[in-house]
Design a protein that fits this description.
This protein has 255 residues and is an alpha+beta fold. Helices cover 31% and strands 22% of the residues.
Length: 255
């Protein structure tokens, strides 16, 4: 866990140039937002899902850094004996089409780690396709789903039951359920002593001035990486190019 009070102090220290302190202070709500946006960039970079961001922030990422994302990896089900069950089963192009909701309110879905179907033929990996490619895949003799050849395909798109994401799995035979892991969206931090916009808008489940602080659920060893990303983002927005270049060089050396 990242102590939010310490992250605020580190953010302010690094944003202000040594001995000059020429950058104005930001309200706590702003810094919380900066850190949260940086945590999303952090996941994109170190999951390997956005190589362009890795270059932007000066990181060299050859593969997923499991230790940097360990606190964000969530199991889809409790085990192969109790896989996640579909919320909806339809047919498309002659195949079973299973819908599995991804994530929940406590662990919202962000990126996949691995998905596999639990079947009476054993566990079968699921190849994720782009939405505009799925029709071609389903009608291609070499790519179409086949439990016999342990090949299933799926797409991730908006759920049919809410505004979140679901995995739609295509199979030529019935499957028992879904298992695997995904990366959850990091928890949004809350410094405290202010009403969040969500609470002001009437969403009572969100923090208010009297709520306790909420720490970010990034591994403690890498909390500073999130701070550095946040500072780089803000420096860039303030057109502070010299400070941005300094941070980029620092990250290339230390990470």
């Amino acid at each position: 866990m990242c102590n939010i009070q310490r992250q605020h102090i580190q953010f302010k220290q690094r944003l202000n140039k040594v001995d000059s302190n020429h950058n104005k202070d930001f309200p706590s709500a702003f810094i919380d937002d900066f850190l949260y946006e940086a945590s999303l960039d952090y996941v994109d970079v170190f999951s390997g899902n956005n190589p362009q961001k890795a270059l932007l922030y000066g990181f060299e990422v050859d593969q997923m850094r499991i230790d940097m994302l360990s606190t964000l990896v969530v199991d889809i089900a409790s085990g192969d004996s109790n896989p996640l069950q579909p919320t909806n089963v339809t047919n498309e192009y002659g195949y079973f089409k299973y819908e599995f909701p991804l994530g929940d309110s406590d662990n919202p879905y962000m990126h996949k780690v691995r998905f596999y179907a639990v079947t009476n033929c054993g566990n079968v990996g699921i190849e994720i396709e782009q939405q505009d490619d799925i029709n071609v895949v389903l009608t291609d003799s070499y790519q179409k789903p086949s439990l016999k050849w342990k090949t299933l395909v799926g797409v991730i798109k908006k759920s049919s039951i809410n505004d979140k994401s679901s995995l739609f799995v295509y199979s030529d035979e019935e499957i028992e359920g879904l298992n695997g892991q995904y990366l959850k969206r990091p928890t949004k931090p809350f410094y405290g002593n202010y009403d969040t916009l969500e609470f002001i808008s009437g969403e009572s489940g969100f923090p208010q001035a009297g709520s306790p602080p909420i720490n970010m659920d990034i591994p403690e060893t890498y909390c500073q990486v999130v701070v550095d990303i946040a500072v780089k983002n803000v420096s860039g927005n303030l057109k502070d190019y010299n400070h941005t270049n300094y941070l980029q060089q620092k990250q290339q050396i230390n990470y």
